[in-house]
Amino acid sequence: MAPMTTSSPTPARAWLRALFTCCVVWLGICLLLALSISSDSLRPGRRPLGFGLVLWDVLPLFPPFVLLSWGFFLHARRWPRWWSEPRAMLLAYLASMALFMPVWMAYLTVVQLLQDGKPLGLWWPTLLQPTWFNRFYDLLLASGTFIFQVGMTARRNAQQREQAWRSEQTDNLRLRLALLQGQLEPHFLFNALNSISALVRGSDRNTALSALSRVSELLRYALRASQTDWVSVQQELDFVRDYLELQTLRFGAGLQLLWQLDDGDWSLIACPPLLFQPLVENAIRHGLEAHEGRGRIVLSLRRQDARLTLSVSNPMPDEGARQAGHGMGLAASRQRLTMLYGEDAAGLHTRVADGRFELDLFFPLREMHESVDSPGR
User: CB-hemisphere CA count at 13 Å for 70?
Assistant: First the structure.
């Protein structure tokens, strides 16, 4: 009659804990039964029976049920299939009752003779006395013990299935996030190399070499960030600044940047790695490149209550001047936010206002000390 647990440090400890639980449960039943008999004896016309005396008489009757419950627990642990298939459960029930009831009746006869002060030589005649109602009651009690163990085993199996399902979902989520994050890295590298290619075509070798060095630093951070689940917002901002410096080498004075950051220590706030840069890259590609390398990009980072919002604004090109792109950055960012925070807690919204393309990315605040690890920079 021991509750099944979903996990235990060692089998021996689980067995001892189950035995202790069986003893506690059946002791509680003994106390309730003794209290019921003692209280019932206080009715008019009946001989009062003290609680202690009744408990002394009742207590020896329950060790076999403790061992029965413990045996069910051990059997369910060793052969769980017997407790999950109807035919196997029926066979287990019939076999256990066929073994337990004769042993119980023999044990009960010995206890009764000892309590009545009679010689044990009367054991066989006493055993044969017809007390069918009491034996039927004992059978119901033993059957209830079996049914209880069946229920606890079914509960444990359900918990294990749910745990396995949750583990599978978590593994799938991590795999999808890793795939999305892995998509962003070659996507970023592809566009960075395009920027360097434009510098090389312009015969500006010194600037191209400087850009290559800058790309090396950016890739070093991207490699470290890809190996962790969380980085600080300050690290992401520094990564975006380095990326924009690379783009400044390409576009020169045509790239105008306006930073609007709320005051605060952004190194204390956590965010997913490589989350900000694809949004800025999208603004460069579809904003500046479509305007022949000239335009103003506005980046705003705000902390509002328990939410962080990053806004990026860039010029909106004319219909005929729009650049064809992979569309990977914004789509991957949306999917990552949904998988990490859910559809309502985080998101990425875009709009067109006054000839500019604007996007807002928001997600719940998370302190860095809540993160498992974060890469250094």
Answer: 20
